[in-house]
Design brief:
This protein is an alpha+beta fold. It has six helices and twelve strands. Strand 6, helix 1 and strand 7 form a beta-alpha-beta unit. Helix 5 packs antiparallel against helix 6.
């Protein structure tokens, strides 16, 4: 896997249901390296820290490989890396082959996989249609959130080097599917929710499905 773009967002104001809402989802490629901090990417805009940023979601990665599929669905958009709010656009990222707890070296940083992305209305605003939220769930290319174990710089062209593979081998794809599944067993929810390095907020969302 290789970084093909590093992206930063600035705070923007959008209109949602007649109200002004601030967001940092609109990210755009930059030429300088990104500095990964323990709770966010330095210089990036993280507005609602209930859902973005923090130790468990310090940086977001999305696969360049699925961009062509999305371009077919939304051909009129001004396509460029960062469209999904990702800090790192990655060639070869496959959520089926990335597991919760996996540790990767990227540039001089060390990161650990924590959870898939759960889309909200701001993605729909970015794409000009709330249908994009449903498309994101249906296509099931969620991207990957990571916690930063060692702060460092990441540049375009850096490779993702697997340093440690999780023994539990619960894939990011498996977690994403369970988050939105209508049919599931309590056992499957408990197995995934108890994965050691899963983000706490994601674990809570899974357990709420049992209520």
């Amino acid at each position: 896997m290789k970084i093909v773009s590093v992206n930063i967002g600035k705070k923007e104001t959008i209109i949602w249901r007649g109200k002004k809402v601030q967001t940092g989802i609109c990210k755009y490629p930059v030429t300088e390296p990104l500095s990964l901090g323990l709770e966010d990417v330095v210089g990036d805009s993280v507005i609602d820290r209930r859902y973005h940023g923090g130790r468990d979601k310090a940086c977001y990665l999305f696969s360049e490989d699925v961009y062509p599929e999305w371009k077919e669905l939304y051909p009129d958009l001004n396509w460029q890396p960062g469209m999904f709010g990702e800090n790192l656009t990655v060639e070869g990222l496959n959520e089926n082959k990335v597991f919760i707890g996996d540790v990767y070296k990227i540039g001089t940083a060390l990161v650990q996989v924590t959870q898939p992305r759960q889309p909200c209305f701001k993605l729909g605003v970015r794409f000009g249609s709330q249908k994009a939220v449903g498309d994101f769930i249906e296509l099931a290319h969620s991207g990957v959130y990571v916690r930063v174990l060692r702060e460092g710089n990441v540049s375009k062209g850096d490779e993702l080097e697997l340093v440690e593979r999780s023994d539990e081998q619960v894939s990011v794809y498996e977690v994403f599917q369970l988050l939105y599944a209508d049919n599931f067993s309590d056992e499957s929810i408990m197995k995934v929710a108890n994965t050691e390095f899963l983000a706490a907020s994601c674990k809570n969302d899974l357990l709420r499905k049992l209520l």
